[in-house]
């Protein structure tokens, strides 16, 4: 596994101009031809937007609040990630998804233009989670440090520039959140904000329940909220990635369940960086009716 990882760490490629891990690019045809099913629920996000959190809520909704069932397997096994090829001997998300016979929750970080068309042909439901760019950048920086399958992020200063110019795995945060935002009325897409989930988790859980056409009791909703709190997920071996060896995720560098807050960027951005960021942000988001909260 260590040897496989060494081979992996720095290999990056591109698909239609979007930077993606090398193995994802090599398997692109297979990924793009992935066969969705009508009852699939796709969780789509830019990395670090709260994917694991939304996945856990959605799984608990599908399991009608049965926490034991939700703990049947680690989150990356029960919710296959179709656009990442982990080093052998780990099973790819594509293989896991294809082998599933029950209703599937599927994870992707792909920008909308790269989603396998079969999801649209089958009219599958998609929950898209967006998180403000500043906190995403900080979270991704720490994640790229500890995730040995992604390129080293370098210094914070360098990473700041790479992120702003979209030279990070899965590409530009701007293109991602805008692309999905524009498509939200064309397909069955529920667009959710991480900051809203922090502000009022129950409200956002209810939105997801409604979107999945489920009818759950107040007790069940409370159970879901309880099991998906930051602290509960940090302590849960099925959601905190502690089952992965440190050669894959080195959590002594940074925990997967790191902080789970809005506004941590203020502890990392310099005043000068914040100015550069705000100026660039204004240009890139100009004319978009998409707004984020960046303060907790
Ligand atoms: P931080 O690094 O800012 O702490 P993803 O699952 O997309 O990789 O996102 C990971 C981010 O979501 C991390 O952010 C993690 O702490 C946060 N997160 C995960 N579960 C959460 C929860 N239940 N409540 C709040 N934040 C959560």
UniProtKB/TrEMBL annotation:
List the record's Gene Ontology CC terms alphabetically: cytoplasm
Its keywords, alphabetically, are: Cytoplasm, Transferase
Under Enzyme Commission nomenclature, its number is: 2.8.2.-
> Subcellular location, in the record's words?
Cytoplasm
Q: What is its main location?
A: cytoplasm
Which residues lie in coiled coils? Answer: none
Provide any one GO MF term from the record.
sulfotransferase activity
Q: Which residues form the Sulfotransferase domain?
A: 39-287
Q: What's this protein's family per the entry?
A: Belongs to the sulfotransferase 1 family.
Task: State what protein this is by name.
Answer: Sulfotransferase
Q: Please tell me where this chain falls within the complete protein, as first and last residue plus total length.
A: 9 to 304 of 576
């Amino acid at each position: 596994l260590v040897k496989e990882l060494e081979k992996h760490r720095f290999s990056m490629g591109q698909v239609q101009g979007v930077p993606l891990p090398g193995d994802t690019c090599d398997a692109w045809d297979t990924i793009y031809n992935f066969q969705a099913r009508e009852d699939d629920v796709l969780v789509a996000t830019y990395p670090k937007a709260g994917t694991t959190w939304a996945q856990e809520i959605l799984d608990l909704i599908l399991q009608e609040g049965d926490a034991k069932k939700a703990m049947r397997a680690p989150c990356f096994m029960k919710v296959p990630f179709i656009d990442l090829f982990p080093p052998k001997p780990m099973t790819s998300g594509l293989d896991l998804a294809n082998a599933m016979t029950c209703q599937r929750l599927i994870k992707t970080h792909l920008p909308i233009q790269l989603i396998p068309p079969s999801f649209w042909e089958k009219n599958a439901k998609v929950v898209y989670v967006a998180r403000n760019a500043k906190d995403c950048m900080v979270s991704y920086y720490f994640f790229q440090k500890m995730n040995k399958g992604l390129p080293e992020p370098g210094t914070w200063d360098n990473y700041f520039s790479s992120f702003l110019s979209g030279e990070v795995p899965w590409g530009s945060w701007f293109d991602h959140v805008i692309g999905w935002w524009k498509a939200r009325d064309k397909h069955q897409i529920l667009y959710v904000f991480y900051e809203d989930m922090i502000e009022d988790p129950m409200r956002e859980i209810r939105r997801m329940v409604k979107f999945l056409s489920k009818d759950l009791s107040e007790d069940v909703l409370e159970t879901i909220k309880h099991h998906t709190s930051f602290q509960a997920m940090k302590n849960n071996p099925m959601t905190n990635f502690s089952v992965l060896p440190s050669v894959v995720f080195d959590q002594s560098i940074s925990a997967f369940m790191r902080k789970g807050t809005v506004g941590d960027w203020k502890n990392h951005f310099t005043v000068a960086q914040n100015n550069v960021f705000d100026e660039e942000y204004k240009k890139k988001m100009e004319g978009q009716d998409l707004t984020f909260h960046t303060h907790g």
